[in-house]
Each structure stands twice: as C-alpha cells, then as structure tokens.
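Annex B. Sample input.
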Amino acid sequence: MGQLSDQVIIVTGASRGIGAAAAVALAESGAKLCLSARSAASCSTVLEEIKNAGGEAFAASCDVSDFSAVEKMVTETLDRYGKIDAIINNAGIVDPIGLIAESDPDEWARNISVNLLGVYHGTRAVLPNFLAQQSGVIINISSGAAHGPMEGWGAYCSGKAGVYMLTRATALEAGEKGVRVYGFAPGVVDTEMQVVIRASGINPVSQIPRENLAAAEEPAKAIVWLCSDAASDLAGQELTIREADINVADPGRPSKTLKVLGIKGDDNRMRVDISTKPWQMVGRLNHSGNHCTAVLVGPETILTAAHCFWDKRRNQWSVASAYHFVLGYDKGEIAAHSKVKSFVVAGDNSSVKKQSRPDFINDWTIARLEKPLGKSFGFAKLAKVNPRNLNKLIAAGSTVVQGGYSKDIAHVLTADTNCQIKSIQSSKSGSVLIHQCDATKGDSGSPLFLQTGKQYTLLGIHVATLPRSNGETDGIALAVDMFQDEVSAAQK
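Annex B, continued. Sample output.
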C-alpha cells in the first residue's frame, strides 16, 4: 500500500510533461486519478501506463479556461470515486512569447485564461467540497517567473504572479479549515514547453542546453510528497524544487547553502535518534499548518514558548484544543500524540487573561495534555544550577545542546550539540541566555539541555532570534529559573 492509498486526485494538464509524470508517480503511491486534458484521448499513453502497473485512473476532456468544463470534470470524478482529496493545478502554456509592444491581445488573454483563471477554476470547483469535508490538498504549479520578469514572457510572468497571490489568498481563507494549499515551482524541466522556449531564442532560459534540464520525474516526486501528510507543516507556502528535494530526501544534515535566519555561521544541526534520551521527550506542537517545538516537563504537561499559542491574525490567544503535541515525529511517522487541554502563560495559574502577545521575558507557557504522555516517554528534569554559574560548568566539561523541529527541515528532529552561550543577563523574572545555538523558525519553545556526561537536564527554552546590525544573529532563551516553580509543581 502506498502513502496515498485510496486518495482521489485530479491532475490537470496530465497528458504530458510534469502532469503526466506526476500522474504516474501518484498512481504508484496508491492514488486514484482523474487525468484532465483538453482532449481525453491525449491521455491514452499515461492512462495505459497507470493501468498496466495496476493503478486506477480515468481521463476527462477539460479546457481549464472554461469553468463549466472544470465543474463537469469535478462532478464526473465525484460520481466515479465518491470523493476528491487533492487537485494538482498543473495545466499551463507559455505562449505568446514576444515583446509586449508587439503582442497579440487575444493571445495574451488566452495565456491568462489558462495559466491564472485555469488555476482559479480548478480551485473554485473543488474548494466547497474540501471545506465541507474539512480536508483537501491544492497544489498550484508555480514558477520562478512569478517573482522575476523575463524578456518576452510578459504574459507568462503575469499569469504566474497571479497564481502566487491566488495561492496565498486561498491559504489565508481555507488554511485553518483543514485545506492545505501549496505553490510549487518545479524548476526548468525537460518538457514540450521547453521546446517552444528554445525555439524562441528569447531570454537566457532559451539558451539552456537540453542536457541541463531536469527530468519530469523529479518534480513528480515532490508533488507526491506534497500530497502526503508529511508536508502538512509547509501548507500555505510556495516551495521550489530545491526546497522540496531537501525534505523528500533524508536530510541527515541540512545543506549549508541555505540562508536561514537563526543559523550562526556553519550549520551545525544534526539529526538525532528520537528514541533516546532526552530526545524522546521533545515533540512538535502543531496548529493550522504551523508548528513550534515543546518538551515534556511532567506526566501530562509540556513547556514551550507562549507566542506559539498567540493568533497573530486575530490578535488574540488561540483555543487550546486546536493544538496537537506529537512525539517521535519523523517524516510523517509518530510515536504518540495528544491534544492540548489547557495552557497558562508566564505563571498565570488562573487562566490566560492578558489579551496581548507576551514580550520575550514572559514568553513561556505550560500546557496540559489530554493524555499523560510523560508516563510513557519520561519528562525533563530541571537543571539544578544557577545559570550565572553556567560558564564554570562548561569550563569543567559540561556542554549545552539544543534540539527542535526547524521549519526548513521540519520532518526530522535536529540538534546543535555544542551550543555557545555568549552571555547571561538578569531580569526581574529570571535569567536570559544569549546563545549561538542554530535555532530557526519552528524551534520556538525548543529545549536547551545541560549535558554532563550522559545526563541531560533542562537549562531553558529558546524563544526568539535577534538579528544584529552586522547581519549576524543571536538566540534568546529563557533559563530554568524563570519557570522552575511552575514546572516543579507540574512534576508532582
């Protein structure tokens, strides 16, 4: 059984190129497919390949620029399979290629009708059903042309720029209602579109030798991955083929060519064994396609950054039950999970009353889970050390390690196993650690452990990254003396 077993997926522009390769790859992963093209007969080769391999699919004639045709195709899919789980809005054209001053308005209109309205039509046709079932995946094939103008590609660049904003708008409206929306730029791929581009001789893309083009099977793999639950934390974003490849492959150690805010110099993050101490106590805190990191600090309690529970769009605290804490998350596999039952912020043991996002000094929270996961996986013990004496311990051989689910490699737990503490600052609430751990977005709430031999104790949690004027960054962590009383109470 494949990772997409029994899912029903529509692929537009499925007769050739990326659409055809994606259809084959999706079928190999267990999906049932509607292959959409202007002529159903043009999908015969792809359809035969899928069926010969034991897959299930049918072909439908559909001009994506005609909404009534798209509606008919969607209805036919629902009638045949009873549901739709995803749509790949892939159909597109590059013509007309030529200077704007010499362009044909009708050809321009046709390009926009296919490349932009076609994506809207596909989205519009499936979205009511997705909202009703509170699930669904929309993948809009984007392009680097959406963000950078190319000579002779005025229509194509304009249409893809529109797709980019349509993706963002759809994610904004539907992302918190169970619908995952992605833009995906597959790069320069060896398709028939590239034949047209090379023939034009306009702009540098036309000069790329065919042998340097990627095979259509490469973005097809990424599309399969985006359809899976493993990519859920990246919903609402536009991804490039390079970003997708980083996640499709076993990252092990992330690429040092990535410029990610929070990485200090060389990228020191390493994948860790999530079945061993202390990492089996560290999990992802998921909410509406976003996530933070949290650590078990009691039988049924976790510690994380308070801002993880703050709804920036609505400027208010989120509902606790909308959050899931997941342990042992590794490329879609999990060891255990629980919904959050309640949370308190910065020692407010009565309830969350302050309707304002906390400053970083108060940016911590203890959340109570519905399930006592700490009884099975253990929970972090507090470091019995005055943070201001930390440098002495480090000089004596102890080290500081930090681990979390960084957003750029969100499907595996990675750690910086030799963090540097630049300074320790005092506040009314406790100590603040200025650190050089490689912590990025997604690492908010991640633990800093003090390692002494084989023993790990909780030293603090990462809450923010502070950019410096020289382009460098510092990490900010709240030390254990900020919340030791509340955590100690949760452990009793």
